[in-house]
Amino acid sequence: MKEFNKYLDIKPEIKKALLENRPVVALESTIISHGMPYPKNVETALKVEEIIRENGAIPATIAIINGVLKVGLDKEEIKYLAKGNDIKKVSRRDLPFIVANKLNGATTVASTMIIASLAGIKVFVTGGIGGVHKNAQQTFDISADLEELSKTDVAVVCAGAKAILDIGLTLEYLETNGVALVGIKTDEMPAFYTRKSGFEVDYRIDDIKDLAKSMKLKWDLKLKGGLVVANPIPHEFEMDYNVINKAIEDALIKADKKGIKGKEITPFLLSEIKEITKGKSLKSNIELVYNNARVGSKLAVEYSKLSK
Ligand code: PSU
Ligand code: MN
User: Which of 185, 207, 251, 291 has its CA 20 to 30 A from that of 213?
Assistant: First the structure.
């Protein structure tokens, strides 16, 4: 019988699926506590789980509750995280401190990858990954998500990187670290709210089975690290390129004026952009997560067939 790490608390349904090599999809919780407002965040988190089930996989939302690494949350726990009182944003560096002090934490892409990997989950669905921030040449603000992708064996399904980041530098960073950028039915790197960014992906995938094969090969070859699976937002929910970029620009100016930096910057920008676009960006954000959940569950299904 497989031994799981003693700090993990894996929901029985998920543990059973993992032991039987059935498809499981990890989900993060920073998007719930710090990425979307209440109560839309609860609604979204629950609906994403439903979509994953409809597509043949089991959802595992990840968070830290009272210092326990939770793999799979119940509705009450999701609501608790969504209300966001005293929920820390936890990335790799924070993880041991939050556990040691029995605190509550919402996991970012980086820490969700770590916990997913400890549980043996290979596919993780989210909205957008962190990256190299604009002006990082001066600020050095580069998300720990990128380093994590270079070390931890999990495929991250997202809608690309947001234009709050320097997309070009983000892609250079991934290349240096040997992290492949795959586009789902697209040659172009999507930019979260829009399908276009002006940058190409490394590999276009039209059939998820092919992606599952390459993932298996990567890890069979002991090539450590994850991959970025970029799935563009559906056309009908895409935002106007100029409108969203203007909103991003304005939000960046405001953040600069207020001196907002470090881990606060992404949540601040998301909420500003939502205000400026009168909620339109939130609607797009929710829809792209649903779309990623569909692709991620199919990927988990195909991958599990190969690893049986
Ligand atoms: N991008 C989003 N929504 C989010 C995040 C990014 O559109 O909620 C969150 C993710 O959890 C990601 C984190 O891992 O922000 C990156 O934060 P930082 O740049 O501080 O590493
Ligand atoms: Mn940062």
Answer: 291
